[in-house]
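Example 3.2
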Amino acid sequence: MEIERAWMHGDELILKFHGVDSISGAEKLAGAEVAIPFEERSALGDDEYYESDLLGCEVFDSTGRSLGRVTAFEETGGTPLLHIGDLLIPFAKSICISIDPANKRILVNLPDGLLTLNLPVPRSPIPDPHGF
């Protein structure tokens, strides 16, 4: 189905599809997914990336060690997060210092403690007050 016209209404994108000329016709499309072919995507500015271009990128730390591949991109309301397995890396310029989607590589400069932030804390045994 071809998009005839698109416009913004406040914060919402409104699409008019060719051949859909009634509210009842449009209601049948509610919840449908809209896809744009890669070759028709809008050009991006410097330091802008499509989420789909980041997925699958291998992430390396400043020593050249691979941390894994980006499996998800999460919008948080603040700084977005890259998911690399269980590791969450803020998608910030100060951390993601080189992004090369064409070669599927991201170089990161991780803040101290980020790699161990979500590891379980080892628990010390609690001494038995009765000496058992």
